[in-house]
Amino acid sequence: MSEDFGSNEQERFNYTAITNVFTRMQSENIEWRKRIERHLWRTATDAQNKGDWNANISIISIRLELCSFF
């Protein structure tokens, strides 16, 4: 993880969590990847609907990564 990513601890945590999920998705079977894709998409949408602006960077990252995976 790059030290200059994120201005606070929460942003660094989000980056690490997303990185860990996508690293795992690359090595798992297709069924697991599809399940985690649906879960991440729902989580991102819920955060956006609740107006959690702190989560917007994570939402954008998740959606971009999911689009590139599938």
Task: Describe this entry's structure for a reader.
- The protein is built from 3 helices and no strands.
- Helix content is 76%, strand content 0%.
- With 70 residues, the protein is mainly α.
- The N terminus is likely disordered.
- It has one domain.
Quick structural overview:
By secondary structure, this protein is mostly helical. It contains three helices and no strands. It is globular.
Which features characterize this protein?
disordered N terminus; 70 residues; mainly alpha; globular
Order of helices and strands: HHH
Q: What percent of residues are in strands? A: under 5%
Give helix % range.
Answer: over 70%
Q: Please report the distance between the alpha carbons of the first and last residues.
A: 24 Å
The chain-level structural class is mainly alpha
Instruction: Domain count, please report it.
Output: 1
Mean pLDDT: 66
Number of strands: 0
Oligomer: single chain
Radius of gyration using CA atoms only = 12 Å
The number of distinct helices, counting runs of at least 4 residues, comes to: 3
Low-pLDDT segments: 1-6
Shape: globular
The profile of the biggest β sheet is: none
